């Protein structure tokens, strides 16, 4: 375990030290005095930061994560958009400054290429960034997933304790006890008590399965491959630091981009039909492994052993692509660095406030709204964290306005999830390289807003004022 600083009894189970709040101690802890967060991904960590601002300083916040180790580089890279950055800045300006100063990469240019590597269009980063900054006060950046998560974890305030290697199993709400929740973890007989249970446990959220009971997300029809590589490797094949390369066409998409001075990331994906055409029985790749096929820590471990197979599948699907650069980069990538995962989503049309939990159980991040990766997954998770804290702040530190949080997030997320569905599918169409994604969409009825209005809604359409720190 990383740390454990609250007043708890320590017991030894299965040779491991574990901790529980006893009933006697609980009597001294009013329900609002402790928060339990499941999942130390970007959203769980951001929620810990945000809640520590708006709850009284002595409120215990315990974060439980099933992965045993959080300090080994994992993940690939993320685009942090204006709304995600504004959310992080509103949660904690010093964390935002640290991330941006130490880890953010500014996009210098984006090349859009056809499958053979011919540049069809170039966007200049300086101009894009200047326009965004003029309109919204900030511009988007690229960061490593690991750098974002590490920054959030290393800057947690002292009232937050992280418990690694601890898998959430189930919870039980105590009747007639101010909504107190008993939370059960693997290998621990005694429950841990929580005044608020926040589920940030990703795609296959166990909390959600119990709370909402609407089963797993559905297969979104695509397989993804990602790898974080040394920048020097990508540079060997003429990929330049700060310059992104998007390959679109023939039903496949690939992207190479920079996440730090020393690292670049590539991602590749294709729909199911391409896998079938390439003779790949993808169902055997993911069958029975839903929970582990969505970038969970277990899967990251497992992919170390099947990286060769994943690489073989990737090369087969992309064999007709740019032989001089992209294929060379794929071939030169260490198979143990390759993560292969299926896409799982929930349809935007089904979105409703219950997706964000009920009573004293709050669901957020991918657990609440898994969507196609068009750049809003992590950014919406950061928004969830900020908006949850704002509702608690407005309710004077109580949990009375959680339903308002759920209603507001539903309203905000609906067009964003719909756009992700439309844009995600358009990416595989021939015209995807068009400057405006709406011209690449086959069915115009799918367009909710024109791209300019949507951008304004996304980057400006929420309350991004800083949280007020509680005494
Ligand atoms: C290791 C990893 C690497 C990733 N890399 C990338 C990337 O490079 N690019 C990208 O776009 N997206 C990546 N993602 C996905 C991305 O983080 C999410 O899509 C998004 O940011 C939402 O974050 P989240 O915190 O809601 O969920 P997640 O990031 O999925 O975090 C959920 C956390 O909950 C933990 N958890 C799950 N079940 C339990 C349980 N029962 N008990 C305790 N803990 C549990 C998981 O181990 C995980 O740490 C990655 C996710 C993971 C877990």
From TrEMBL:
Residue ranges constituting the FAD-binding domain according to the UniProt record: 34-416
Keyword Oxidoreductase: yes
InterPro entries: FAD-bd (IPR002938), FAD-dep_Monooxygenase_BioMet (IPR050493), FAD/NAD-bd_sf (IPR036188)
Molecular function GO terms recorded: FAD binding; monooxygenase activity
Pfam family name, one: FAD_binding_3
Alphabetic keyword roster: Monooxygenase, Oxidoreductase
Keyword Membrane in annotation: no
Sequence intervals crossing the membrane: none
Protein name (database record): FAD-binding domain-containing protein
Organism: Chlamydomonas eustigma
């Amino acid at each position: 375990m990383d740390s454990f600083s609250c007043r708890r009894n320590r017991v030894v189970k299965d040779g491991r030290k574990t901790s529980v709040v006893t009933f006697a101690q609980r009597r001294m802890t009013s329900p609002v005095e402790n928060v339990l967060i499941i999942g130390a991904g970007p959203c769980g960590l951001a929620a810990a930061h945000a809640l520590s601002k708006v709850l009284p300083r002595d409120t215990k916040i315990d974060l439980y994560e099933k992965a045993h180790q959080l300090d080994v580089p994992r993940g690939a890279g993320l685009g942090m958009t204006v709304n995600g950055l504004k959310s992080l800045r509103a949660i904690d300006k010093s964390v935002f400054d640290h991330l941006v100063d130490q880890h953010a990469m500014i996009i210098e240019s984006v090349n859009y290429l056809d499958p053979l590597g011919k540049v069809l269009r170039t966007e200049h980063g300086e101009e894009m960034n200047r326009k965004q900054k003029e309109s919204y006060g900030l511009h988007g950046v690229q960061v490593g997933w690991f750098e974002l998560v590490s920054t959030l974890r290393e800057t947690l305030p002292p009232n937050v304790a992280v418990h690694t290697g601890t898998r959430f199993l189930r919870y039980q709400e105590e009747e007639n006890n101010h909504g107190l929740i008993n939370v059960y973890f693997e290998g621990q007989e005694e429950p841990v008590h929580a005044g608020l249970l926040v589920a940030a446990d990703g795609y296959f959220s166990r909390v959600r399965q119990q709370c909402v009971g609407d089963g797993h997300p559905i297969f979104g029809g695509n397989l993804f491959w990602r790898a974080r590589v040394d920048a020097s490797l990508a540079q060997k094949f003429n990929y330049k630091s700060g310059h992104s390369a998007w390959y679109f066409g023939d039903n496949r998409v690939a992207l190479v981009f920079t996440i730090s001075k020393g690292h670049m990331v590539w991602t590749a994906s294709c729909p199911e039909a391409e896998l079938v055409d390439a003779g790949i029985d993808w169902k055997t790749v993911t069958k029975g492994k839903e929970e582990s096929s969505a970038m969970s820590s277990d899967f990251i471990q497992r992919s170390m052993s099947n990286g060769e197979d994943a690489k073989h599948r990737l090369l087969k699907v992309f064999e007709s692509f740019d032989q001089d650069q992209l294929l060379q980069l794929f071939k030169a990538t260490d198979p143990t660095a390759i993560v292969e995962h299926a896409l799982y989503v929930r349809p935007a049309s089904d979105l409703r406030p219950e997706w964000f939990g009920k009573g004293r159980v709050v669901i957020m991040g991918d657990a609440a709204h898994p969507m196609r990766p068009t750049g809003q997954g992590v950014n919406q998770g950061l928004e969830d964290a900020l908006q949850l804290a704002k509702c608690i702040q407005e309710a004077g530190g109580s949990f009375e306005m959680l339903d308002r949080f759920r209603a507001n997030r539903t309203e905000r997320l609906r067009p964003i999830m719909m756009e992700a569905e439309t844009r995600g599918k358009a990416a595989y169409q021939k015209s995807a390289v068009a400057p405006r994604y709406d011209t690449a969409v086959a069915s115009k009825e799918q367009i909710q807003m024109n791209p300019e209005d949507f951008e304004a809604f996304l980057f400006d359409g929420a309350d991004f004022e800083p949280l007020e720190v509680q005494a």
